[in-house]
Amino acid sequence: MLFQALTDVAVLDPQSRIDIDDGLKSAFIRADGTFSLDLEPGSYKLDVLTGTHYFIPIRIDVQQETYQVFKLNQNNNWREHGPQLSVFEIEPVQPRQQFSVMSLLSNPMILMSVVTFGLFFLLPKLKDQIDPEALKEYQESKPTPQERK
Questions:
Q1: Nearest to 93 by CA among 52, 59, 140
Q2: pTM of whole model > 0.90?
Q3: Quick one: pLDDT at residue 142?
Q4: Torsion of the alpha carbons at 10, 7, 26 and 64, rounded to the nearest 10
């Protein structure tokens, strides 16, 4: 069965493909926006896999020579149909986020790691900057392990 799905194929990378039921069957998208799959009558989950955009999953119900298309939200029960799409057009929801060094550096885990490694290297240097008399006085005032008991 031949499906006309995508209107603007120029936004997709050449490796984009259509997956049915999480990889049970797959097909590459042609330059004119069509794809062809040999499907038995039944219900299938259709995903568009691409590295440039995110697409909402679609449920497709195939009869003998016809099909119906429904939007499949994550909270939809499989037995319940989502909103029916009158035209089988798969439009991208949003472009994927591009890699950015600033977004990496603004990550809290990265910031904590940088601060920890910075302290790891700076604290020994600060110890050398302490006045030797003040260090000796501190060590004398600190209780020994025998005094702690």
A1: 52
A2: no
A3: 81
A4: -160
